[in-house]
Amino acid sequence: MTYSWFSRIIVLGYKKPLEREDLFELNESDSSYVVCPIFEKQWRKEVLRNQERQEVKASFHKEAHARKPSLVYALWNTFKFVLIQVALFKVFADILSFTSPLIMKCISICSKKPFQYFYLSKFPWPFLTIFMLTIILCGRYMWVEGWALLLSNVSRKRFSTGEVINLMSADAQQLMDLTANLNLLWSAPFQILMAVSLLWQELGPAVLAGVAVLVFVIPINALVATRVKKLKKSQTKNKDKQIKLLNEILHGIKILKLYAWEPSYKKKIIEIREQELEVQKLSGYLAVFSMLTLTCIPFLVSLATFGIYFLLDEGNILTATKVFTSMSLFNILRLPLFDLPTVISAVVQTRISLDRLEDFLNTEELHPQNIETNYVGDHAIGFTNASFSWDKTGIPVLENLNIKIPEGALVAVVGQVGSGKSSVLSAILGEMEKLTGVVQRKGSVAYVAQQAWIQNCIVQENILFGSVMQKQFYERVLEACALLPDLEQLPNGDQTEIGERGVNISGGQKHRVSLARAVYSGADIYLLDDPFAAVDVHIGKQLFEKVIGPSGILKNKTRILVTHNLTLLPQMDLIVVMESGKVAHMGTYQELLSKTRNLTNLLQAFSEQEKAHALKRVSVINSRTILKDQILEQNDRPSLDQGKQFSVKKEKIPIGGVKFAVILKYLQAFGWLWVWLSLAAYLGQNLVGIGQNLWLSAWVKEAKHMSEFTEWEQIRSNKLNIYGLLGLMQGLFVCCGAYILTRGSLAASRTLHTQLLDNVLHLPLRFFETNPIGQIINRFTKDMFIIDIRFHYYLRTWVNCTLDVIGTVLVIAGALPLFILGVIPLVFLYFTIQRYYVASSRQIRRLAGASRSPIISHFSETLSGVSTIRAFGHEQRFIQQNREVVNENLVCFYNNVISNRWLSVRLEFLGNLMVFFAALLAVLAANSIESAIVGLSISYALNITQSLNFWVRKACEIETNAVSIERVCEYENMDKEAPWITSKRPPSQWPDKGIVEFINYQARYRDDLGLALQDITFQTHGEEKIGIVGRTGAGKSTLSNCLFRIVERSGGKIIIDGIDISTIGLHDLRGKLNIIPQDPVLFSGTLQMNLDPLDKYSDSELWQVLELCHLKEFVQSLPKKLLHEISEGGGNLSVGQRQLVCLARALLRKTKILILDEATASIDFETDNLVQTTIRKEFSDCTILTIAHRLHTIIDSDRVLVLDSGRITEFETPQNLICQKGLFFQMLTEAGITQDSVTK
């Protein structure tokens, strides 16, 4: 009951920084494992009840508004017993709170019999069991994740990752905050009713005047609440937009840096943020009005009551007992009057959050019944007259599919970009909306997505994917997927942690890990979406031979392979040729070759070099060559130590006290003018408040000594007028203080957010590759929420309480000087308790803040791989993992709440000692001092408990919430990139020749690592085409990163057209270079915005580049054409189309130097040839550096640069290199490219 069992944590936290292991665990009944299933059961019941209600209405032909299942009912049915229990405790606590004024009244009347009353004085009641409500929090995150895994594609378009993260953080937080104060909805009116009834006993019918004032104010507060609701809705939309855009920016940060687009996207976020702050400003002004009514209501109620009290009967005289008992009741009235509008506003805001959560929980789910899985037949997969679209009302993407795939068959799905190849796999998985026909599927499924999805965990866990370890089979899978050499080179083998989105492994490794995961699952059907696109040619051959092909591990399984590699077709049992969403041709290789000109044309489009790749001619590559080829693919870095730098950094949790510099940082952002003005306003407010009470005391004192009633009548109106004037002055000070606070807090929010955004965008790319995105998003969501909404409130309350406590002590000490003797030890105890509490509470808050990031990271990761998770049928496992990370957060939250209760009980006890001491002195000195002074002292003593409690708690809140400012400012001191713009600017036409020169260039990724590039010296000619080749890990991508200064030099220099690139700003450099990257990254927004985010080019120029990229026809077929909305991550375009949009971007930005990083890996060979022709033609007057994985793309280069272990080994024309028979010749031979085909 006194929470003494928690003292161990408090003392431990004072001695050393607390760690997660030190905290108390959750009760099992409060854990997400217990609470979630109960809630889910109640929610399903509510959904069924709602369906029954709708059916009944329909049977009576009632056209009523369709009612959604209610989240409130589901919550009530889940937690009603806890809520009722807490309500009973609250009733008891409220009744006890009214004993203080009654006891004070008794002390005034019976001052000679003190001790029989003291034991009742302000009896502490520690049953404020707010924590019992907080278990409602337990399920929030899991409901969201659980439903997110079931969302259909149309629902996923409605709810972006940013919006769902916002549901988890802001909306769940809103609901949690309300649960702590939910009882105030009925408790505040109950307290007001009790206060009014006790006032009636003191002042009779005059109290009705006060009630009239209350009734008058209620509709005004209702109007304010309605306005707040509207503002909250628009605020939530702005937050959703901001988090959605931020999430995409952080995932596509490499593109932003390469294209120097940071200022453009920074401007977009700041525009959304300004809309958010505008709404916050209006909310702040409404808060000014609320503060005015809050301060003025008790004063207006007392003024109206006393005024009518005198008018009702001229014989009514104010005595000390009446005045100070009434004033105590008015003070008690102040809290429910303050709480009621606040809780009504919170209910209004929570209603919006509930609506959003209801919308999410009621969104359309996938329909597993679209696919028949329990049928008996001889085919593994069957489509009969089946048509599909991405949403029910959309245009069919696949039409009239009639395909029967026998069990154990190897099937190829081929076709041009956008023909519907990947959509066929999505239809088999049930990811699309079935419009017509029948789909049948027999057995379990494994899926390898076109863009490999990798989890942030060790390599082994990625491959096992929840399955039991079978060592022998595991080794066999690793060997077949060509992963053994990689694992030998990784610092911890298969125990090496892979970063978020697989940032610390290459594209080829991602695909092979993804393939290994599928193979290890032992499924019946394998859906493989172009798994060879990102791997080198000879590795692709090995994967086909040992895994997918007729002699591979999966030879007896059903395999459906989407591919652009047409040389594999002779090995296939069945070939499906897709064209515009329909099956154009289907049959074996020989059947199609004899019947179909189309396939012949496709094969003719194949270059001669690629024909030479036919698998029939491949000889077995010895294991030593494979090992040589598989040197660590970690971003092309040769040194084995390099892998260590990629261990993903866990969030650093600060220890010790929050430095004053952090608070100072906030005050500087707040603005010193606003700081001093707000202090002056709050000082004035408190001085006037004390003046009011002293005036009343003097009034009562004078009334007592009045010899005649007429004398009393003369001063009465005068005293009442001055009392009213003081009240109005106090209201004015409050109004000014609230206005100043709003202006200052907006300035602080704007400044800190801009600094955070600026710091994040200036961080080097390495930071984003080694830190989970969830950590950064957490700062923009949870931490900025505290800075925007809470911190200034805590600061204001603390200043107010400090002035209040000082005023109270001075007033009591003035009346009862001996009171100082009692206060000194109590103040010492207060500070001791505060010191112990803050040390523990601060660290628990930090642990809670850090434990939120894994929730967001896991959730974001789950959403990005939702198709893979559903294909493997692992939804429940991921929901379980989410419950685990949420439980970790709840443990911190639980300990935080208990620490607050621990503090509350001890502060209440000390406050009651102070009241007891003041009352004792007042009674003992009753004969020597005026009853008015006694009344004033006890009245203030009763208030000091609340003020001191608030003061200590808000001091703690300031320190614990300052952690958010600390976290937001954390990136300020991290190493940044070089300046974007410097005083030295290159000429506007630079570079005009395109001559790139490396002179003794050296580069390393980190100071403590070996050199990634060593002594690189070469020079290109103007308008020369250079191919850059090398084994995996030779340093090809590092070279391009150095050109863009993503990696800075360790020695030497790079000169472009006579200018050393290290002497100019990053944006002057990056803005003048051009790159088509390997990963096609698009952002949500219009197609036009994706092509031209800086809005530099005309529509005609955009159409021109779309035509050159063979996208014009596709874009013209879209209803909105250039304004077509691209979904998050470009999800509504195929990967090939995304790659072509990236090519269009480069064509639009045409500069003198172009870097191609295997830019055509995801498109079919026909389109690839067209694209290569376009690049040669459109960039004929440019210097082109091509980083090649498919060697045929650089065969026609003017010269080829061959890298090995970070050094240049060969640099000559392709013909000369072949004659030299060095490393380049060896690579050509392994790839099956003959000397004849090169000569051609």
Helix and strand arrangement:
Blueprint: H1 7-15, H2 32-59, H3 71-97, H4 99-109, H5 115-118, H6 131-138, H7 140-148, H8 153-158, H9 161-181, H10 184-203, H11 207-251, H12 253-259, H13 262-312, H14 320-361, E1 379-389, E2 398-406, E3 410-414, H15 421-429, E4 433-441, E5 445-448, H16 459-464, H17 471-480, H18 484-489, H19 507-521, E6 525-529, H20 537-548, E7 558-562, E8 574-579, E9 582-587, H21 589-595, H22 597-605, H23 608-611, H24 623-629, H25 660-670, H26 672-705, H27 709-762, H28 765-770, H29 773-815, H30 819-864, H31 866-872, H32 875-924, H33 931-969, E10 996-1003, E11 1013-1019, E12 1025-1030, H34 1036-1043, E13 1049-1056, E14 1059-1060, H35 1066-1070, E15 1073-1076, E16 1085-1086, H36 1087-1091, H37 1099-1108, H38 1112-1116, E17 1125-1126, H39 1135-1148, E18 1153-1157, H40 1165-1178, E19 1183-1187, E20 1199-1204, E21 1207-1212, H41 1214-1220, H42 1223-1230, H43 1235-1239
Parallel strand pairs: 3-7, 3-8, 5-6, 6-7, 12-19, 12-20, 15-18, 18-19
Antiparallel strand pairs: 1-2, 1-4, 8-9, 10-11, 10-13, 13-14, 16-17, 20-21
Helix pairs in contact: 1-30, 2-3, 3-10, 4-14, 4-33, 6-9, 6-32, 7-9, 7-32, 9-11, 9-14, 10-14, 11-13, 11-14, 11-29, 13-14, 13-27, 14-33, 25-27, 25-33, 26-27, 26-29, 26-33, 27-29, 29-30, 29-33, 30-32, 30-33, 32-33, 37-39
Domain ABC transporter: 381-605, 996-1230
GO molecular function: ABC-type transporter activity; ATP binding; ATP hydrolysis activity
Domain ABC transmembrane type-1: 158-349, 676-950
